[in-house]
UniProtKB/TrEMBL annotation:
It comes from the Bacteria. InterPro entries: AB_hydrolase_fold, DUF900_hydrolase, UCP033909. This is Alpha/beta hydrolase. Pfam families: DUF900. GO terms for molecular function: hydrolase activity. The keyword Transcription does not apply. It comes from Janthinobacterium lividum. Keywords: Hydrolase.
Amino acid sequence: MVGNLGNLAGSSGMLTGSSGMAKPGNDPPPAGAVHVTVYYATDRQYQASSRSYGWQPNRAAPHLSYGSVLVSIPEKRAPGELPLPPWYAILASDNAQKYVLIKEATRLSRADFLATVKTRIQAAPERHAAFIYIHGYSNSFDDAARRTAQMAVDLDIGALPVFYSWPSKGTLAGYEFDQNSAEWTQAHLQAFLADFAEYSSATDIYLIAHSMGNRPMTVALANLLEKRPELLPLFKQVVLAAPDINADVFRDQIAPRFASLKLSATLYASANDKAIRASYNFADWDRIGDIRGPVVSIPGMELVDASAVIMNFMGHDYFASNRVLLTDIATMIKTGQRAKNRGGLKGIPSQAPQYWAFP
């Protein structure tokens, strides 16, 4: 169910419920649903006649585009659930009480986007915060919008919800294409993070990257903060969820840069992630998000073993679909506490923990 909406409702204008005030220009949500406005930057190519509100699944643009998406979320829904209408329901009327639905998408210029998010963030009653979600492999623009809205409700952290959508092919067969696309998007993501940090007025920025989305995020963030260290204090927490990254590349080339920057970063991995196993089989190289076998700590970064939590069939989206993980991430963001001070985690080994795990 939708919890205490806190800072996401009211004057911030980011989220409205069936009993709340609607954002000017939008119809109020129907009874039993809540509307969430999420903001985006993308380097997907736009074509008005295409699906996914014009954003192409496998076409890259040479520049960034911006906008917002209005998403309807059912109120009677367990945390982590992302119920979608079946394919055969496309001709049926909307059922906002049952399904997560995209209601509309708006395109904005860069200047209007930055002005809008600045206004929204400054209107928040308690703190000027935003979280930016970077999706993973086989995700469409719509997938990213719905997931961002769901996390905004379930995390309930009072932060403006934003997502960065790179041109994933959006299909399981598109792994090789997505690998190239994730590498290609790094420069655009770096430019977006720089813009957002400098002009959004957010004093607390939280990054949540999933799966292959960790590849451009880690490189873009390290490049940006090494070049512009004055922006470092704005990035309060970095979450690497089920990262699909070559384990040796991560340990030798990425983790040392994060440690040098003293970023507050947490990596969630699992031994039961079938998608990460498939990535290993494809590349014939260990992935850092796969925690099977001996676990080796990562200097300068907290490693959390999520193998014990209940997962769906693929076991890959546990960071956003499991109540336990959502609670841990929300606690980390709200309080800034490290793993040793958050309830629900045990240190391994207990006397001098090298990593953490859910019991």
